[in-house]
């Protein structure tokens, strides 16, 4: 039996006033500890939310910076490619013009040679024989 127990009553009804006070103090302490734990947990939640928010902002700023840099780089590459295309196009046009001019000169020279052969066939044959003989001598060596 417990101290101060009333005969015939169950033991749980026989608490002393000190025990009752201690139980109240334990419940109060438990409620206070629970309250402090809850407050701490709330502060941790707020700090975590704040850290996550600031991290999100930093990541978004970094992503924006990367995006802007990529756009600038893409613009520079596109501008360089356009300049290269223009230069290649100009070079192609100049090449075609040079080819056409060369073909025109060759056609003119061929026309002049034909006219010369028609006007002076004997001299043309003599020149051709001489050029062939000279070329043959040079190639033998």
How does this structure look, described?
- The radius of gyration is 54 Å and the shape is rod-shaped.
- Helix 1 (17-119) packs across helix 2.
- It has one domain.
- The chain is mostly helical and 141 residues long.
- 87% of the residues lie in helices and 0% in strands.
List the helices and strands and how they pair.
Blueprint: H1 17-119, H2 121-140
Number of domains: 1
Rounded to an integer in angstroms, the radius of gyration calculated over CA atoms is 54 Å
Coarse shape: rod-shaped
Poorly predicted runs are: none
Structural class: mainly alpha
**Portion in helices:** over 70%
Give a quick precis of the structure.
Helices cover 87% and strands 0% of the residues.
Features:
single chain; 141 residues; mainly alpha; 2 helices; 87% helix; 0% strand
